[in-house]
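Sequence in, structure out.
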Amino acid sequence: MSKHTKGPNLLHDNVGVLKSRMGTFYPGSHVIFRGHDLHTDLKDMDWVELYVFGITGRRFTKEQLRLMHSIWTYTSYPDVRLWNNRVAALAGSSRSTGNLGVAAALAVSEASIYGRGIDMRAISFLNRTRQHMNVGGNLAECIRLELELHRSIAGYGRPLINGDERNQHILELAKNLGLDQGSYLRLAFSIEETLFAGRWRMKMNYAGLVAALVADIGFSPREYYLFLFPAFLAGMQPCFIEASDRPEGTLYAIPCADILYEGESTRTWLNRNNS
């Protein structure tokens, strides 16, 4: 590592052949993926297994991989009303390409309230709280401080309904796989009990539950963030296809009469050509 941290010297130190510890493509010969030959050593991996190996550099048990598959499956909703699916559908309605539409839909999945933003807050809160509890801290105090900072607890409560239809299914699967006894999951339920018993009356949602399950598997917040990138993906293509099959431009058509306008009243526009 160079002693130069910025400026032209840093750029000079990085001139030349780019060396990577992650992988290298040798045209006509082979491909190295995190130190392994992709087409021989890793040829039997399924896509999710390869994906998380690429993120973490670690191998996982078949039970852990099964849970990871379902974390994605259980949250792929083909509902065009959802904020990110709407982007994919509008791309189809405007006759853009599928790749552009879905890429844009995944980009807006970074949303701070419904998407990756809340996921990152959820796992970070669990990490901080467990560290605090490990040194004798008080759970109620952790919750109070988090509420003072954000006015909410990431992973608890839901704008539409106080509950989550996905939780029972992923919990049942985790139990069947023997992955429901982790320390983060126990902490997540303790937080729920505290919140629901207090004046907040908030239940754990899918973001809180999945953050706990994945933290127990050993994911860091960054690994968790990257793992969740395709979580909504399977629900997006159906929205794009259906909108593409409709007449062009008809998705979410809004008549002018339906728009509530409170700005300037009717104005007279001057014709500059006659002035």
